[in-house]
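Reader question, answered in our methods column.
A reader sent in the components of a multi-part assembly and asked whether the whole thing could be modeled at once rather than chain by chain. We filled in our standard form and ran it. Here is what they sent:
COMPLEX SIZE: two components
ENTRIES:
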Amino acid sequence: GDSVTQMEGPVTLSEEAFLTINCTYTATGYPSLFWYVQYPGEGLQLLLKATKADDKGSNKGFEATYRKETTSFHLEKGSVQVSDSAVYFCALDTSGTYKYIFGTGTRLKVLA
Amino acid sequence: GAGVSQTPSNKVTEKGKYVELRCDPISGHTALYWYRQSLGQGPEFLIYFQGTGAADDSGLPNDRFFAVRPEGSVSTLKIQRTERGDSAVYLCASSLRGTSGNGELFFGEGSRLTVL
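And here is the structure of the entire assembly that came back:
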């Protein structure tokens, strides 16, 4: 069945460091791909998405490119801030109806 | 507030008891979703409503779980004869139409259920 694999955390970085969180997927159809973020004490929020191969999603300095050839959707940010500390979830949707399959999440901690 | 509201935020119950979890979606959103997030895992899809009807309930783990949305707005997730393995955070989400191409899914903060 369809699945999403994320790198395990926690990831601890110093402020202004470069961030990469790896995400790979297995899907039988042509999924849309998403990154969600969960800040402490808050609900999941959409960070960015890409709906077809080679699309790049971007938001708040984060980027991810839909790579069909490597079945990946890695999340990157050039310079992280303390306020980026959160849990990040990669997800796919082949149904077109938000029936997501999520990865297990990666906790990011950014130190000042 | 204008977000998805879930109550209770925390529920502790004993094995074998009945539990109801409530979700109040964003006003005007026709689609409503329930997900379950166990410790250390990502959310797992349970059920999706379009209006009053369950469009897809394939994620409900067994017949102890049931959800309703009688007026197309508020939804209740009902769990009978709770088991310790039901302990998780139950997430509700809503979207304007239920099609992910151009929209966004908005999540509530969740109801944490602990079964002793």
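What stands out: The two ends of chain A are 41 Å apart (CA to CA). DSSP finds no helices and twelve strands in chain A.
Send us your own complexes using the same form.
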